[in-house]
Design goal:
Order of helices and strands: EHEEHHEHEHEEHEEEEHEEEEEHEEEHH
CATH topology of the largest domain: FAD/NAD(P)-binding domain
Radius of gyration: 21 Å
CATH class of the largest domain: Alpha Beta
Number of helices: 10
CATH architecture of the largest domain: 3-Layer(bba) Sandwich
Strand content: 25-35%
Number of strands: 19
Length: 387
């Protein structure tokens, strides 16, 4: 039999890249917070499959703003909190091997610079100095943003969890939300397979599983799970620091990106075309063939490097490739933080602060603009160029 319901200011579904930092910031702001997670610990769903890249160099203004905030948080984390999350400002380079890609990348520089991003176009020779060994044939140049970087997803999740707990947030693992009760059109009670709780706000940060949670409130979400794969090689000598991104489509794939981890290992990932929809966790031999070929095409000197392992993770995709954030018109107190399209790790800290300011009633104009453009009520007709 369930005990009498405890009351929290905020209950969060999901202890991943978004839910865990949100719990920390809300708890630090003085709210009572409970995080409910179906898995045994934080960061065990999509977070642990992330490769760790964090960039503000997007084409959508809201994502630029949120990721720039994330970079500010992560790049100063060790100085502020003392935890080594393996942050490294290695930069990002979007390379161009054809005229259309070059034109598209150059056209975005103005909006990226308008947000204060440190990004410029570099000539082919300059890119080759930054990324020795990159395929020089056909290289037209590329963008470089030195303040973008990478961090350890697992260490970052653990750090947010530690400080969320220290600030008073509660985490209940191995527990599933099974029912949400409304009173006068507002969220009132969360019922799980173990307990029941009262709350003022309920945040859906369940990633690819957010649709299942939202269905409990009668609010359909246009979020579908999409499988992506990544791989890591044996270590080799240090060669370059930047994350290299090639947005040219090739048969079977779209974006391809790779970087060298501080341990010397090369980590790479591609976007499959057509998409692989659903919760399919088995690796495919096709990924290794396609991914390895794209890696060798871009950096031939890696041809004889051996692969250590590959893995598959799930992206919560939306029709326009943009997150769904903020309030729901039909249900008071219900907040969304989902559909981050495989970029939860880089967006999570910025989204966490945005949601905290929303609940505090302390949004700045840029945050208000983010919520308007990323609302569930939008048309979902646009498509971001740099997904």
């Amino acid at each position: 039999m369930m005990s009498s319901a405890r009351t929290f200011d905020v209950i969060i579904a999901g202890a991943g890249s978004v839910g865990t930092p949100t719990a920390m910031y809300l708890a630090q702001a003085g709210f009572s917070v409970l995080v409910i997670e179906a898995l045994p610990s934080c960061g065990q769903a999509s977070n642990k499959h992330a490769i760790g890249g964090v960039r503000a160099t997007h084409s959508d203004p809201s994502k630029i703003y949120l990721c720039a905030d994330s970079i500010n948080i992560l790049s100063t984390w060790q100085e502020k909190y003392g935890d080594d999350i393996e942050w490294r400002s290695g930069g990002y380079s979007f390379v161009a091997y054809d005229e259309n890609v070059e034109a598209n990348l150059k056209s975005l520089l103005a909006v990226q610079k308008s947000f204060g991003l440190n990004i410029d176009w570099r000539s082919a020779d300059q890119i080759l100095q930054l990324i020795p060994g990159l395929q020089p044939n056909g290289l037209r140049g590329g963008t470089f943003s030195p303040e973008d970087g990478s961090a350890s997803p697992l260490k970052t999740a653990a750090a947010f969890y530690k400080h969320a707990k220290a600030s008073g947030a509660e985490f209940h693992f191995n527990e599933k939300v099974s029912q949400v009760t409304l009173a006068n059109g507002k969220v009132s009670q969360i019922i799980t397979d173990r307990e029941q709780y009262n709350c003022k706000y309920f945040i859906n940060a369940a990633g690819s599983w957010a649709g299942e949670i939202s269905a409990l409130l009668g609010v359909p979400l246009p979020v579908q799970p999409e499988a992506h794969e990544a791989a890591i090689t044996e270590p080799t000598q240090p060669m370059f620091d930047a994350m290299v991104v090639d947005i040219r489509p090739t048969p079977g794939s779209n974006n391809f990106y790779f970087y060298q981890h501080p341990t010397g290992k090369i980590i790479f990932c591609l976007t499959p075309d057509p998409p692989i929809m659903g919760f399919l966790n088995q690796n495919t031999s096709g990924f290794l063939t396609a991914g390895s070929q794209r890696l060798i095409d871009l950096m031939p000197k890696l041809m004889n490097l051996r692969l250590r392992r590959s893995w598959r993770g799930t992206y919560p995709m939306t029709p326009d490739g943009l997150p769904i954030l903020g309030s729901v018109d039909s249900v008071g107190g219900y907040l969304l933080a989902t559909g981050l399209c495989g970029q939860g790790f880089m967006l999570g800290p910025g989204v966490a602060r945005l949601l905290t300011h929303l609940i505090e009633g302390n949004l700045n104009p840029q945050e208000q603009a983010c919520l308007e453009s990323l609302s569930l009520q939008r048309a979902f007709t646009s498509e971001e160029m740099l997904k």
